[in-house]
Records
---
Amino acid sequence: METPKNPTSIHHRIREGLSRVAMVMRADDWNRAKLAGINPTQLSILELLEGRTDGLGVKDIAFHLGVSQPTATDSIAALERKGYVEKRATENDKRSLKVALTIAGLSALRAGGAVEGATDRATEVLPEYEQEELLLVLVKMIRQLQERDVIPIQRMCASCRYFAPFVHSDAARPHHCNFVDAAFGQRDIRIDCRDHETADPAFRAATWDAFVEG
Ligand code: SF4
């Protein structure tokens, strides 16, 4: 049994903490999904497809969500019946179909996104510097998972070809986004940016070093 004299490892306790937060997030997701008459897996698919105008293949969707291909296929079929997604042939290969978000799917997503969850409320009350620290820790953890091929590359600034970290002397807005040609701060770092374009590995590595060395 864990006692102050005999604690479990810090990794174990961080995992316990993350699992409590994840439990509440799952409940938040159910509330959001309910508004659109779908389930959380289907909601995650709509979120994943937003901003990906060319759509994604079933295999990619399954990998991003960490579910099996049959589960992804079933969820996509349910979304298709509701008119929230559609399958499109790709330009280069007419036999290869991609799943894309429809206008109805985007509306359903926005309706769910407007609901404030318990985890939003819990982070809102943290001091601003702690919110920023939490965001940066999450970026670092997500990058570790990417590097280990546990998850695919996410649409984060840290992997984006438009990201130029710490190029401005303004401490409040040291980074530059070359997509919108604007400076921005640590608290504006994106986890899932719709304008993201994945940089090549050498650029990603150099950008990451510059970002963490700050
Ligand atoms: S396009 Fe998005 S992900 Fe890329 S640097 Fe700009 S804000 Fe970050």
---
Amino acid sequence: MTKHVQVAVIGGGIVGCSVLYALAKLGCTDTLLLEKRELTSGSTWHAAGNTTYFGHYASITRLFTDSIKNYLEAQALSGQSVSFHDAGSLRLATTQAELDAYRKLIPMYEALNVSYQVVSPDQIKDIHPLLVTDGLYGAAHTPTDGHVDASGATHALAKAARSMGAEIKRQCPVMKIDRCNDGKWSVITKEIEVFAEQVVLANSFWAREIVLPLGLNLPLYALEHHEVITGDIAELEALDHEVPTVRDPYAPSNTRQEANGFLCGVYESSPVPWAVEGIPEDFAEELLIPDLDRLEPHLVRVIERIPTFAKAGIKAVNNGPICYTPDGCPLLGPVLSHPGLWLATGFCVGIGTGGGAGDFLANWIVSGEQPYDLPIVHPSRFSNDLSQSECLKMIIDTYSKGYITPSVEM
Ligand SMILES: Cc1cc2nc3c(=O)[nH]c(=O)nc-3n(C[C@H](O)[C@H](O)[C@H](O)COP(=O)(O)OP(=O)(O)OC[C@H]3O[C@@H](n4cnc5c(N)ncnc54)[C@H](O)[C@@H]3O)c2cc1C
């Protein structure tokens, strides 16, 4: 059986569904998304859903702000809740240099019309009464961001895209892609061969393997990434507002409220790569074996900052694969050597940026021009010859830097 479409999207995580949705909004509905298992099956289903507005560059910040905008828009169109909690975020300054760097961003946020302020330790206490401010110089406060339900957001995008005419096929793994003599792309699954003018790879760390036969060496691998969820904490329950997400360069971690407990994502100093020689064929909606011993030194610091974190005990520890590129930015744009092939992969904060990234790529596909300048995500920034060891070294280095501000790095 064969099928012809204008655009085939491979992968039904938040990024693939976002591309499909954004294409549909632009009137491009001759599209087909192919997902090997179920929507959100990859990293999306277990993501914490944090969607900050904090970014060091205006263009990246726009990806973040457009994401929440698109999730809320898809929610309104589809009726599927994305559970947006606008509790805001605090990016802590543990040095004067960090505080100065945060202050320098004020004009950028004014230009973007996004609420942003640099607050003092005393102000932090009002915003987050459970946080110990000793040794802090202040924080960047983005009061209108927060977190969404990552699965809810993905399904909202998918449902809204479908309502506009886009098609989604689940349980349909793509086995091979190839460029035909007429310039179209052949996308081969068990059941059908799809011929598409454009193909978007939105299949995260699986993208490496599918393009290897094309001579492409994508610089992306998965790392193990942990999040720790606590039981209920009376002090949190007693507050009259949800506390903001705290991003702490000292821990380094992000800690937000989850119901009446905390959810903390930890950036290990020696992260462990996962499945570097290939993603296991039977890997499904699974978590990896957690390793609390590795997390302990980081959690000790989280508890120094938020002592109540230790009060309720740990309810769950999730360890999931997270996709990384050497600089931590996604691969978003055309593969110049292979016309009609587009990448929307390599996302390590795909919930935070996926909604905006879909918009960015769809506009580029439909109009042939990128909607705004964003060289930081262009796939062509990396050489095709990067060795596995060099790539992994850079990925590990980037991940382990956690929330260190680039300009104040020592
Ligand atoms: C513990 C943890 C917590 C996280 N917390 C956050 C957070 O708070 N905020 C944030 O922004 N990010 C977070 N992340 C990262 C986030 O989960 C990812 O960046 C995001 O889910 C990536 O989305 P995606 O659509 O690119 O990939 P995925 O969700 O992995 O989707 C890729 C899809 O492609 C499908 N696929 C693969 N190969 C094929 C094929 N051959 N044919 C068809 N389909 C295929 C897969 O089945 C999968 O469904 C977290 C990650 C982890 C591990």
